[in-house]
Structures are given as C-alpha cells and as structure tokens.
Q: What sequence folds into this?
C-alpha cells in the first residue's frame, strides 16, 4: 500500500469512528467555569440501564466519575469531547466471572494483580471493564480460595482491586455428602460461636470477668456468612443439588449466589422466594433425564423463567476467558451475544442488558460503583457502533475511570474491521 | 400373554415409536405457508408470500396475492415471520452411535459412518430446534482416512426418510491428528502423504477399471468421489497445510474437494484458494490472532470471502462446538465483515453445494425438499427463537404456544 493511500484510509477511518477533539473545535457551547479535566461524551444514545435510554444525550465525567448526564447539557469550555453521535453509550460490562487474569496460586488476589496482559487487552476491546476473579477454591473442603472484583485499569495498579473477597466459594453437592455434612457442622459451630460471643460481649460490658469463646474451625469465614457480611457462591446444576443448596438459606439464613444452574427453570419459585441471585449461561444444554418424571434437562427459556420469578440474574458465556483457537462467540469476547441468546429464550432486552451490567455489579457487591450510567458512579463506559445485542456490533471506545483505555480505530486487534462489508485486504502468505 | 408381559410389550412399542417419531404430520400432507418474508437464498426475497408444499417438496413460491391456495392444502399463516431454508452442517460428528475412528490402518476406505446412525442423539434434536435440517456426519481424524460420512436430515420417521445420501464425503485427515501408531508407516508427514497418494491412485485406477473387473467393496465408495458423485472432505490447517491439500486434491487428483477447518493461518492461502475455485469450510475456529503475522484478529471466513472464495461454508465440528452453534458461526462471520446475505449462504446453499446435494436442499426453490424454518428474524439473529421447522414437508419442530 502506498503511503498516500494509507493516509487517505486513515482519514476515512477517522470520520467513521468517534474522535476525540477539543470542545471548541466541536463547537460546543462553553459553560461557566473551566472544563479542564472534564470529559464529555456527546450526542450518543445513553443506555443508562437503570433509567432507560436517553437518545442523543451527553454525559460528563470529572475525576473518574460520572458528574452529569442528560439532553441539553452544556459542555464546559476546555473539556475533552468524545463525539458519540449515532453511537450507543452504555456502562462497561461487568463479567460475573472472568478467567485468565491471574496466574498461579495465591491466598490474596491483591498479590497477584498486574495491570498489563492479554486478558486485560482483550477484555477492554470487548467492553468488559470489571470482573469477578477467583483464586483457588474449596477443593475437597467445604469452602476455600479467595475472590475479588477487579477493575481493568490497564497500566495502573492503583484502583485495580475493587473488593476482596466478594463471597465465599462453597462446595455443596449431593455427590459429596460428607463434605455437605462437614459444612453444616461447621456452620452450626460458627452459629454457636456467634451466640457465645454476643453473650461474652454483654458480660464484658457488664464488667463480668469472662473468657472469650474459642473460634471454631472455619469460623472466621463462616461467621461472615451467618451475619450476612458475605454471600455464599455455590455451583449447582441440577434440581436435586439446587434444592439441597437452598436449604442452607432456610437453615442458616445466609445470602446465596447460585452459579451455573441448568434445571433452575424447573423450580423458579423455590429460587425466587428465597431471594437467591443466579449467575447462568443461557446456551448451556443438557439432556433430560428420562428416568425422572418431573421436568429435567436444560431449557433455553431458563433466564426468562427465572427473571419472571423475580430472580436477580447475571449472564456469563460458556467460556469465561478469551479463547483464540475456537469457540469465538462462546466466550467473553462476545458477552452481549450470550445475553442475546437469553432474549431468544424470551428474556426482555432491558433485562438482558441488566444481566451483564448492573445485576452482575450488584451481585458482586459493587452496584454502588459500577453497572449503570448514573451520577456519582465510576466512569467505566463503552461506546459501541450499534445496538448492544446485535451480533455485528463492535465496541469502539472503552473508558475506565474516565480514561480512554481502548480505541478501536487505534487498536491493532480490531481496527481493520470497518463498516459491514468493507473488509481489509487479504493477508498475503509468506510474511 | 400375561398382563405384565403385555404391558412390557406395549411399553416397548411405545419406546420404539418414540425412537423414530417426528412431531410431523401424515405423509402426503399439503401445506400452504403464508409468511411476511420468504428468503429463498438463490432467487431473492418474496415479501408477503406463499409457499406451497406437497409430497415433501416445495411446489411453488410466490407473492400471496398471486398465489391462490388450492383446495386440500392446510394453511399455515405465520404472520410477519420469515421463512428460510433449513441450515446445513458440513462437518459434524454427531447423530452416530460412537465409533468415530476404527484405528485399523492409516487408510480405511471400507468404513462408512452411516452404518451407525443414532436418531436419538440429543445433539441432533438440539440442532433441529435451532433450524438445522441436514447434517453431514463424518468419521474422525485419528487416521489419514477413517472412512466415509453420511448426510442425514435431523427428523424423519424412518432411516429411509432421514438419509439424504448414505455415503457422504470421503473423509481425509491430511495431518494434525492422524500422526499416531496405526499401521507401520504414517507417523511422519511424508509417510502419511505416501499412504494417501497410494490409496488415491488405487482408487482412481479402480474407478476407471473395465466393468467386467472384479469388485472391491472398499474401493466402490472411493470410486463415487472419482466419478464426481461424492466430495472428499480434508481435515487441514495452516498455510502450508492448505497449500498441500489444494495441490494433492486438485492438481494431482482433481477431485471435488472441501478443505475443512482451514484456519490457524490457513486464510493466508485465501487468494490461491479463490483462484482455484477451491471449496473452503471454516470451523470450529473462526477467528485468527496468533496464526496471523501482524497481531490483528481476523475473522477467518471474512478473509476467505474477501479474497474471493465463493465456495465457502462454516461448520461446528460438533460436538467440539455444540451443533446449535452453527448459526452463531455464521453470525460471527458477519461480525467480522461478511455481509448478512453471504453469511446466510454459508450455512445453506454453499453447504449444500459443497456436499453436492444442492439439487435437493440449501435454498427455497420449487422441486427442492421442503426443509423450512419459520422465525421472526434472520437465522443469524440469536434474539429471536426458531418457531417452526419443516423437514421433507412435515412439521418436525413447533415451539409456538399451544392454543
């Protein structure tokens, strides 16, 4: 390609993608006060998630937070303006599970974080700005491992760890009754400890000379479940296991996050009544069990059915990493595609978008910071070239804490994907 | 017969009926399907049209106001829904009762996977529910030539109804899997190539033999390929692999060949493939990052399409990907720049042409099998479910709410 042609192409490209220009150049009305340090995303359709869609709206960012959004907002002079006319602007996607971010075993996610890596690059290019990361797990014990919500603040370790831990990873399956029994025993002991501790605190306050109760095995963690400080996160696929896990809610009053249910659609009321949160994959398929007369197996309507039962849903794809050798369209490169499949099964579109933004943020305990376009929330925002659930839609810009960390027009990864049907040159062999 | 025995016998009758049941109507039933949009694939799109179906075939297609519904046709009015041809899978390993590889020797021309069809496979039912009506199931790639595939419909009451062609493609695995001990030579690429060339030369000689010559059961199947009645499907990858495949199967033997998988930098031979008119099937891998030299993520289908490969299909290699991911493979192709119209062709007429069964399936044309999908939007769009699937003119899947 000649240099001139290349330059012409670059110019053409610039017209097609949201460009970052100064407010004066964009002709925005200056407002009172200096706009220095302000970022304005102007003219896009703002999918706020919590307050509907604002067509042709403007969103202002200062110090990494959303400071204003709406129509008819004036942009302060000197603000950095992102022209989003004809684009969709929505909160960064929050992955209720994200694999591949950290390597090796660690007792604390905080110790294993680094602000660079292919997972971060791919996540930002896919609109994922935060995710749930787990290290280790229960193994053959009733609980174990650690987990965190990590923000993908590429290049900056500061603020990367948002919260650790998020929940307690439990192992609770009918296939392992001994582990089940052990957990229940440990939970009873922790409950007894809390009772004794309350008594101790009371006695001590009354000036009595008493010894503090001894912490039982696992008590430090399990008391957090019992007091509601942390929820439990349990994988359960089939109705037998799901119903069994639900007993923990009844018996110990814990908050529960159910991950990966397949037969949840057969018992939606049982799940909804207990205010259990669900993280699921709409495309999961399982054959029905022909020896059970009740409904069994998977249903592509599971998301819709659970949502109707009042369950707070987060959606994750079949693979929660970024695969390169196959399975594209089945992993976090295309998280919205998974939500689109839930819509195919009857989930309303707005519910599907919630399931990859605000719901996952809330389930991870960071709903006050992430998951919607609201004043005061972190400016983790994506600009897309079409409807979020359209299979052709690409992310054009990804901002984390108000900073543009991904710009498709400058990205090696995807800048060659232009408007539909306009393909790059065939890549010659032998390079 | 005692009551218990009778119950058992009845139970078995019900079971065997269930084994071969399609939710279909009686044979010979006639339908007039009225729809908001009929996407024929090969002859444009008809808005507000009618399709007449008779004896399992498409009888006529036309605008509703010019196509009167004859007497004796059951009217199926699907409102503003679209009707599209059922999708065709080129490369799968499902619907068969195990036995992907019989590791007898590196070439096993006598094997045919159609001998072990399993109509009860849940993955086939899942495929039907997303609008896949024909599947080409092939033996594995554990040897250079594990046998022949089978082309079957995803519904049908009998084996006869299901089979579209009992012999599918000659399955060749040129490399990247068959390098394992099965026979004395063939652990190296040169050895494997020799075995394949030797086999193909014998097969060609057999296909050209005088009619009076002694029959060789194993080579009868191979002769179909040399007579152009069945294709050869080659498991291949990478730039040099594609080059090797195109050279052997076109330059040396000039067979109706499909390069399958074809990713992992295979797209860098796209210009050569286009010049040759070579058939290329992409899947299950559909993007390429590390196989490309420049750090870009390419949509593999988009690259072949851009270079001018018209005989282009996508596949799932199910169960590697679930069979129901076939429309997603086409949607992802569209995402990377294949236009929607072409993306639909990847899983319909192109697939039918690659398998040499386009006289029967792959588009909506009078005389073709009435394999139809009714859906609110395009087959590529996952946000709407498949509502009705017709196979051979019978309703094989119907997820509309019951009245």
A:
């Amino acid at each position: 390609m000649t240099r001139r042609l290349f330059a012409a192409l670059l110019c053409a490209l610039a017209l097609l993608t949201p460009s970052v220009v100064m407010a004066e150049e964009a002709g925005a009305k200056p407002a009172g006060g200096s706009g220095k340090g302000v970022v304005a995303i102007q003219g896009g359709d703002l999918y706020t998630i919590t307050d509907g869609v604002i067509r042709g709206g403007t969103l202002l960012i200062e110090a990494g937070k959303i400071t204003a959004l709406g129509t008819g907002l004036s942009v302060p002079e000197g603000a950095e303006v992102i022209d989003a006319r004809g684009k969709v602007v929505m909160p960064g996607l929050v992955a209720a599970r994200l694999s591949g971010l950290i390597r090796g075993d660690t007792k604390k996610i905080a110790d294993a974080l680094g602000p660079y890596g292919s997972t971060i690059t791919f996540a930002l290019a896919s609109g994922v700005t935060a995710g749930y990361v787990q290290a280790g797990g229960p193994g053959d014990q009733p609980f174990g491992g650690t987990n965190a919500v990590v923000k993908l603040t590429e290049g900056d370790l500061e603020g990367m760890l948002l919260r650790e831990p998020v929940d307690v990873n439990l192992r609770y399956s009918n296939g392992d009754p001994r582990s089940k029994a052990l957990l229940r025993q440990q939970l009873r002991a922790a409950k007894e400890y809390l009772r004794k501790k309350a008594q101790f605190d009371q006695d001590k306050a009354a000036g009595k000379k008493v010894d503090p109760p001894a912490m039982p095995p696992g008590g430090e963690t399990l008391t957090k479940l019992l007091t509601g400080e942390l929820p439990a996160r349990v994988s359960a696929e089939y109705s037998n296991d799901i119903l069994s896990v639900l007993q923990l809610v009844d018996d110990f009053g814990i908050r529960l996050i159910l991950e990966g249910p397949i037969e949840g659609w057969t018992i939606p009321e049982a799940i909804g009544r207990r205010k259990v949160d669900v993280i699921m994959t709409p495309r999961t398929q399982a054959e029905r069990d022909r020896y059970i007369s009740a409904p069994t197996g998977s249903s592509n309507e599971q998301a819709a059915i659970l949502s109707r039962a009042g369950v707070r849903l987060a959606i994750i794809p079949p693979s929660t990493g970024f695969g390169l050798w196959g399975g594209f369209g089945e992993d976090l490169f295309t998280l919205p595609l998974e939500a689109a499949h839930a819509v195919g099964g009857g989930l309303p579109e707005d519910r599907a978008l919630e399931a990859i933004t605000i719901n996952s943020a809330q389930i991870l305990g960071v709903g006050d910071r992430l998951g919607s376009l609201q004043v005061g929330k972190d400016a983790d925002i994506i600009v897309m070239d079409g409807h979020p659930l359209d299979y052709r839609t690409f992310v054009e810009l990804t901002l984390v804490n108000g900073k543009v960390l991904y710009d498709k027009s400058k990205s090696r990864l995807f800048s060659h994907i232009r408007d539909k049907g306009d393909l790059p040159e065939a890549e010659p062999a032998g390079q | 017969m005692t009551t218990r025995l009778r119950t058992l016998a009845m139970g078995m009758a019900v079971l065997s009926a269930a084994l071969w049941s399609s939710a279909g109507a009686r044979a010979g039933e006639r339908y007039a399907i009225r729809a908001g949009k009929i996407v024929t694939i090969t002859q444009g799109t008809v808005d507000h049209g009618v399709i007449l179906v008779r004896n399992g075939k498409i009888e006529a297609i036309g605008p509703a106001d010019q196509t009167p519904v004859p007497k004796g046709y059951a009217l199926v009015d699907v409102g503003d829904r679209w009707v599209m041809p059922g999708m065709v899978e080129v490369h799968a390993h499902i619907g068969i009762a195990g036995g992907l590889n019989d590791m007898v020797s590196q070439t096993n021309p006598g094997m045919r996977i159609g001998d072990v069809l399993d109509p009860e496979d849940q993955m086939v039912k899942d495929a039907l529910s997303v609008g896949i009506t024909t599947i080409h199931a092939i033996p594995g790639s554990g040897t250079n030539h594990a046998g022949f595939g089978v082309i079957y419909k995803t519904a049908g009451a009998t084996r006869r109804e299901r089979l579209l062609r009992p012999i599918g493609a000659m399955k060749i695995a040129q490399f990247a899997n068959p390098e394992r001990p099965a026979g004395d030579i063939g652990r190296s690429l040169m050895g494997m190539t020799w075995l394949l060339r030797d086999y193909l030369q014998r097969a060609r000689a057999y296909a050209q033999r005088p009619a009076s010559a002694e029959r060789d059961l194993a080579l009868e199947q191979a002769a179909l390929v040399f007579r152009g009645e069945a294709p050869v499907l080659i498991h291949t990858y990478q730039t040099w692999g594609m080059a090797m495949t195109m050279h052997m199967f076109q330059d040396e033997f000039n067979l109706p060949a499909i390069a399958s998988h074809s990713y992992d930098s295979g797209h860098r031979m796209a210009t050569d493939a286009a010049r040759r008119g070579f058939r290329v099937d992409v899947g299950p891998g559909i993007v390429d990052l590390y196989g490309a030299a420049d750090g870009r993520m390419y949509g593999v289908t988009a690259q072949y399409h851009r270079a001018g490969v018209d005989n282009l299909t996508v596949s799932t290699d199910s169960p590697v990907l679930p069979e129901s991911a076939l429309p997603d493979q086409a949607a992802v192709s569209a995402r990377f720049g294949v236009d929607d119209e072409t993306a639909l062709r990847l899983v319909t007429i192109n697939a039918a042409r690659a398998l040499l069964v386009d006289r029967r399936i792959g588009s909506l044309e009078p005389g073709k099998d009435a394999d139809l999908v009714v859906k609110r939007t395009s087959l590529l769009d996952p946000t709407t479910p498949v509502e009705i699937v017709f196979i051979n003119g019978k309703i094989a899947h119907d997820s509309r709410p019951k009245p």
